[in-house]
């Protein structure tokens, strides 16, 4: 990682190949502008009706920071309005600035302690806390726009980003995450998974498609390749209502408790269909879609096992959608 300073302040972050990941402009000790892929943070402070002192970021706002010495993880008023990946890029810059200022740990003091935020924080901070404790009371915090800190400490540990064809790699103690065509491949990911040096898509506890192979330094050895197409006869077909009802209950029980009712309502109110979703297990829009590879791999094991696999596939997408809807309703 290449870091450029001016007057003792960080002004540019680039990777070893010269790809620029962040630019910072300062007026004295105050941030004037931060540019990351997909977003621009405007350093001038404004009075936001939701957050109070805030900065503009893209089409939304974020709580104001002391950028030279950030001691709090900021709240973004409408995270869904940011381009994919932009929030994580901003958090990584904040972690780097905190490291440079020798800040031992930061806490989150906002109303949106969601699964998505937890996952983003884990990529730029270390913590001994649990996701269960972090998201507990999320709906109640949203309802009253809570601003008291959650008592979980996040120790800054910024990752290095390396641009590759159609995406990037995140490195700390080796390769920790790879993003290709907007899909994140994590060590504990599903169905997109990072296994040793390989980015693969798995369904039914077996590989479905290999997308790329990496060198130890994060550079590409092979790929990226297209995800194997699914040609199952069920593609495009709707789920029978009794199965939808059963899946809705399973998902409602599996998501974070505050989101259960919203998850159930979502699944009962929109068509649920089989689809070829590439490296995604499920998507939520005007309809809810599930990857047909699950039918190919899991249905021979019985309807009960299939229902559980479908619920597992739906939980991340449904949780994210319901949490975004709640945040939008508050704002």
Describe this structure in words.
This protein is α+β, with helices and mostly antiparallel strands and 331 residues long. Helix content is 28%, strand content 33%. The protein contains 8 helices and 22 strands. Strands 1-2-3-4-5-6-7 form a 7-stranded antiparallel sheet, with helices on one face. Helix 5 runs antiparallel to helix 6 (260-269) and helix 5 crosses helix 8. The two termini are 37 Å apart. The model has no long low-confidence stretch (mean pLDDT 93).
User: Element order, helices and strands?
Assistant: EEEEEEEEHEHEHHEEEEEEEEEHHEEEHH
Overall helicity:
25-40%
Largest sheet: 7 strands, antiparallel
Main sheet: which strands, in order across? 1-2-3-4-5-6-7
**N-end to C-end Cα span:** 37 Å
Strand content: 25-35%
Compute the average pLDDT.
Answer: 93
- The secondary structure category is alpha+beta
* Number of helical segments with 4 or more residues: 8
Shape descriptor: globular
Number of strand elements: 22
Radius of gyration: 21 Å
Uncertain spans: none
Secondary-structure topology with pairs:
Layout: E1 2-6, E2 9-14, E3 20-27, E4 30-36, E5 39-48, E6 52-57, E7 60-63, E8 72-73, H1 86-100, E9 107-108, H2 115-122, E10 125-126, H3 131-135, H4 138-144, E11 155-156, E12 160-164, E13 167-172, E14 174-180, E15 183-186, E16 192-195, E17 198-203, E18 206-214, E19 220-222, H5 241-254, H6 260-269, E20 272-275, E21 282-284, E22 288-291, H7 293-298, H8 303-330
Parallel strand pairs: 8-9, 20-22
Antiparallel strand pairs: 1-2, 2-3, 3-4, 4-5, 5-6, 6-7, 10-11, 12-13, 13-14, 14-15, 16-17, 17-18, 18-19, 21-22
């Amino acid at each position: 990682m290449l870091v450029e300073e001016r007057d003792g302040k960080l002004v540019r972050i680039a990777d070893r190949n010269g790809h620029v990941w962040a630019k910072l402009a300062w007026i004295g000790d105050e941030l004037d502008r931060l540019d990351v892929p997909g977003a621009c943070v405007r350093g001038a402070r404004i009075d936001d009706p939701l957050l109070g002192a805030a900065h503009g970021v893209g089409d939304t706002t974020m709580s104001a920071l002391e950028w030279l010495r950030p001691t709090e993880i900021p709240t973004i008023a409408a995270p869904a309005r940011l381009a994919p990946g932009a929030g994580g890029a901003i958090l990584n810059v904040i972690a780097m600035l905190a490291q440079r200022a020798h800040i031992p740990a930061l806490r989150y003091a906002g109303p949106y302690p969601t699964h998505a935020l937890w996952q983003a924080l884990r990529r730029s901070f270390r913590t001994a806390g649990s996701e269960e404790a972090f998201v507990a009371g999320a709906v109640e915090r949203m309802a009253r726009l809570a601003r008291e800190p959650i008592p979980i400490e996040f120790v800054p540990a910024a990752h290095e980003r390396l641009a590759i064809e159609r995406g990037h790699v995140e490195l700390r103690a080796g390769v920790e995450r790879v993003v290709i065509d907007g899909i994140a491949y994590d060590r504990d990911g599903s169905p997109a998974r990072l296994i040793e040096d390989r980015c693969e898509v798995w369904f039914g506890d077996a590989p479905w498609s290999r997308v790329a192979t990496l060198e130890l330094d994060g550079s590409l050895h092979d790929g990226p390749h297209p995800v194997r197409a699914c040609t199952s006869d069920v593609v495009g077909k709707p789920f029978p209502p009794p199965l939808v009802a059963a899946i809705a209950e399973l998902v409602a029980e599996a998501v974070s408790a505050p989101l259960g009712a919203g998850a159930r309502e979502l699944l009962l109110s929109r068509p649920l269909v089989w689809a070829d979703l590439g490296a995604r297990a499920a998507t939520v829009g005007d309809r809810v879609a599930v990857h047909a590879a699950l039918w190919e791999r899991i249905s021979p094991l019985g309807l009960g096992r299939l229902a559980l696999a479908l619920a597992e596939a739906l939980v991340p997408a449904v949780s994210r959608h319901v949490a975004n809807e709640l945040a939008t309703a508050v704002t």
